[in-house]
Design the sequence.
C-alpha cells in the first residue's frame, strides 16, 4: 500500500497545436512517499504548470499511469475527478483564490460543502482549521480585511479542511513579501512535521530548498536533485 | 446541496442589487402587465355579465318594425303571443318623453313608459312602495301610474305622492306606487331613464289608447322555462312570420343570453390578445436575464474554476447558476404580481368597475416567470458547468 501512495509512471502530455502534437511532459516518472515534502523546481515554460494540473487532477495525461492513494486516476471522467480533487488534493494557489465576498470561515467551508458535510459540522471543522493556521480571531474577516500572509493562511486552512492526501501548492509565496513568505514556509514545515504530504511547485530555488526533497523539471523532463548551476 | 446553492445565489444577487433589479425589470413589467390585464378584463367581464343578467335571463326581446302596411305588433298579435305554450308573459316597452302637470305645476321632460302587469310580476323588487300594475289595470285600461323618486322629488316635494293625481296628456292619472331606484348604476338603466325629471310607468294598454299607438315595436317575452329558449324562439318565429306576412326584416328576436355568450367569447379573445402582447415584455425580460447570467458567468470564471478545483461537480455549478436565474425571475414575478394587483385596483377604480382578485392570473404570472428563469438560465448555467477548471483558474 505504501508503495502505491503516489506513483506516476511514464506520464506524457501533448497539446495539439493546429498542425502537430506538441509534447509538454515527456515520460515523467515520479514516486512520492507518504509524509514527504517535495518541491518541483522549474522555470516558466518547463511544463511545471501542466505537471501540477495532472497531479491535482485538474487535467488528465495523454498517456501513462497515475496512482494516487492506491487508486488509478489517469482516466477518470469529470465527476470522478471532482471527487478526487475534493477528497485527495488540498490546493494552495499563488493568488490565494479566496471568494472576496465571503468571510474567512465561509471560504474554508467551501470544499466541505462539496464534500456534502452538514452545516454545523462544516462550521466546526472550518473554525478548527483557521485556529490551526493561527487565525482564530479573524474568522469573520473578509479577504480584503486581511493581509496577504493572512489570506494565504486562510487558503491553507481551506486546503486542510477536507483532510486531503496531499497538499499541492503552486508558488505559494509568489505574491508575498520575503518576511510573510518565510512565515508561510514555517507553517509548511510545521504541517510537514505533523506528517502531511506536501508538493510545492516553484521557480524560486531558495523557496524550493525548504522541502525535504527536490526534483527539477526542464523542457518537460524531470530529474532528481538540483544541478549546481540551476 | 440545494440549500447551499440557494444561499450562494441569494448572496450573489444581493451583492449586485442595482444590476439584479435592472435585470428583473423586464420580468416585473411583463408580469405586472399580464396580471393587470387579466384582472381588469375579468373584472370588466364580470361587471358587464352582471349588467346583462340584471336585464333578466329567460327573456327574449322582439324588435318589430313591421311592414309598410302594418307597423309593429297589434293587440291581437300580443294575445297570440301570450297564448303560446312556452310564454309565461310579455310586456311591451313603450316610452316617450312628455310633460306632466300636478296642481297647475308643470314638470317638463318626463319619460312616460307603458309596461304590462307581467313586467311587475317578474320585476317585483322594482317597486319601493304602493302596488304594481295589476291584470285588471291592463284589462280596464285604468289610468293609474307608478312614479320614480326623481319625479316624486320634482312634482311632490315633501308630500307623499301615493294617492295623489297627476295630469298626463291632459288626462287624470292616480299614483298607486313608487318605483325603486335601480340598484346598479349601470348603462342600461341609464338608457331607460331618458327624461331629465324622472319617469313614470302606466299600463301598456292605457298607454296605447291614450297615445293612439296601434302597433308595439318593442316587446319583451318571458319564457316559462329559461332553459328552453330555443323552442320559444321557434314558436315566436312561426307566429311572427305569419303575422308579418313572411316579409324579410320585419322583426328580429334578441336573446340576451346569446349576446352574453358572444360577448364572453370576444372578451376572452381580447384577453388572450393582450396577454400575448404582454408576453413579449416577458420574453424581452428573459433575454435580459440570460444576458446578465452570461456576463455573470464570464465575470465569475475564476470563481467557477476555484469551485471546481475544490471539488464542485459540473452539476453543482449548473444547479447554482440555474438557481440564480430562477430566483431572479421569480423575484421579478413576485414584484410584478404585487404591482399588477395594485395597478388592477387603481384601474378598476378609475373605470368604476368592481375589482375581482384573479388567482388564475397570479398562477399564470408566477409560472411564466418560473419558466422564463429556467429557459433563459439554462444556457448560461450549462456554459458555466462546462468551463475547464484550468482555463477558469488561469483567467485570474
Sequence:
Amino acid at each position: 500500500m505504501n508503495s502505491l501512495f503516489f506513483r506516476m509512471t511514464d506520464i506524457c502530455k501533448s497539446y495539439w497545436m493546429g498542425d502537430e502534437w506538441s509534447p509538454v511532459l515527456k515520460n515523467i516518472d515520479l514516486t512520492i512517499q507518504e509524509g514527504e515534502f517535495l518541491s518541483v523546481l522549474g522555470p516558466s515554460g518547463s511544463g511545471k504548470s501542466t505537471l501540477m494540473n495532472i497531479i491535482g487532477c485538474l487535467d488528465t495525461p495523454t498517456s501513462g499511469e497515475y496512482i494516487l492513494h492506491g487508486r488509478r486516476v489517469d482516466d477518470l471522467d469529470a465527476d470522478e475527478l471532482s471527487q478526487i480533487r475534493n477528497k485527495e488534493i488540498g490546493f494552495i494557489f499563488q493568488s490565494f483564490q479566496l471568494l472576496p465576498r465571503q468571510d474567512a470561515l465561509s471560504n474554508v467551508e467551501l470544499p466541505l460543502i462539496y464534500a456534502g458535510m452538514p452545516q454545523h459540522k462544516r462550521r466546526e471543522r472550518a473554525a478548527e482549521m483557521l485556529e490551526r493556521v493561527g487565525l482564530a480571531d479573524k474568522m469573520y474577516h473578509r479577504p480584503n480585511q486581511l493581509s496577504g500572509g493572512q489570506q494565504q493562511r486562510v487558503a491553507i486552512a481551506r486546503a486542510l479542511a477536507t483532510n486531503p492526501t496531499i497538499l499541492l501548492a503552486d508558488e505559494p509565496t509568489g505574491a508575498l513579501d520575503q518576511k510573510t513568505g518565510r512565515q508561510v514556509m514555517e507553517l509548511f514545515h510545521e504541517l510537514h512535521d505533523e506528517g502531511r504530504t506536501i508538493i510545492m511547485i516553484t521557480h524560486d530555488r531558495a523557496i524550493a530548498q525548504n522541502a525535504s526533497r527536490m526534483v527539477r523539471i526542464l523542457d518537460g523532463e524531470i530529474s532528481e536533485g538540483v544541478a549546481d548551476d540551476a | 446541496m440545494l440549500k447551499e446553492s440557494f444561499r450562494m445565489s441569494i448572496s450573489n444577487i444581493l451583492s449586485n442589487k442595482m444590476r439584479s433589479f435592472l435585470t428583473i425589470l423586464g420580468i416585473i413589467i411583463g408580469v405586472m402587465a399580464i396580471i393587470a390585464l387579466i384582472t381588469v378584463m375579468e373584472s370588466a367581464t364580470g361587471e358587464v355579465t352582471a349588467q346583462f343578467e340584471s336585464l333578466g335571463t329567460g327573456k327574449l326581446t322582439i324588435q318589430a318594425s313591421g311592414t309598410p302596411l302594418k307597423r309593429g305588433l297589434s293587440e291581437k298579435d300580443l294575445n297570440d303571443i301570450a297564448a303560446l305554450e312556452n310564454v309565461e308573459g310579455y310586456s311591451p316597452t313603450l316610452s316617450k318623453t312628455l310633460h306632466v302637470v300636478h296642481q297647475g305645476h308643470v314638470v317638463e321632460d318626463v319619460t312616460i313608459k307603458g309596461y304590462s302587469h307581467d313586467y311587475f310580476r317578474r320585476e317585483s323588487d322594482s317597486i319601493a312602495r304602493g302596488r304594481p300594475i295589476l291584470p285588471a289595470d291592463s284589462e280596464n285600461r285604468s289610468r293609474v301610474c307608478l312614479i320614480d323618486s326623481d319625479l316624486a322629488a320634482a312634482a311632490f316635494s315633501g308630500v307623499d305622492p301615493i294617492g295623489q293625481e297627476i295630469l298626463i296628456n291632459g288626462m287624470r292619472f292616480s299614483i298607486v306606487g313608487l318605483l325603486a331606484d335601480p340598484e346598479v348604476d349601470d348603462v342600461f338603466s341609464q338608457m331607460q331613464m331618458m327624461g331629465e325629471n324622472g319617469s313614470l310607468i302606466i299600463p301598456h294598454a292605457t298607454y296605447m289608447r291614450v297615445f293612439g299607438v296601434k302597433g308595439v315595436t318593442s316587446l319583451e317575452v318571458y319564457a316559462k322555462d329559461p332553459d328552453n329558449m330555443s323552442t320559444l324562439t321557434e314558436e315566436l318565429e312561426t307566429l311572427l312570420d305569419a303575422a308579418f306576412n313572411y316579409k324579410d326584416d320585419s322583426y328580429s328576436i334578441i336573446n340576451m343570453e346569446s349576446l352574453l355568450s358572444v360577448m364572453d367569447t370576444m372578451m376572452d379573445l381580447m384577453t388572450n390578445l393582450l396577454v400575448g402582447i404582454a408576453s413579449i415584455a416577458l420574453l424581452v425580460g428573459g433575454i435580459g436575464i440570460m444576458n446578465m447570467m452570461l456576463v455573470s458567468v464570464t465575470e465569475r470564471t475564476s470563481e467557477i474554476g476555484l469551485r471546481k478545483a475544490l471539488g464542485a461537480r459540473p452539476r453543482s455549478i449548473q444547479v447554482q447558476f440555474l438557481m440564480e436565474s430562477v430566483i431572479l425571475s421569480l423575484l421579478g414575478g413576485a414584484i410584478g404580481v404585487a404591482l399588477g394587483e395594485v395597478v388592477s385596483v387603481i384601474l378598476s377604480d378609475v373605470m368604476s368597475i368592481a375589482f375581482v382578485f384573479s388567482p388564475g392570473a397570479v398562477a399564470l404570472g408566477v409560472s411564466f416567470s418560473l419558466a422564463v428563469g429556467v429557459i433563459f438560465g439554462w444556457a448560461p448555467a450549462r456554459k458555466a458547468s462546462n468551463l475547464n477548471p484550468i482555463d477558469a483558474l488561469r483567467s485570474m
In short: The radius of gyration of chain B is 34 Å.
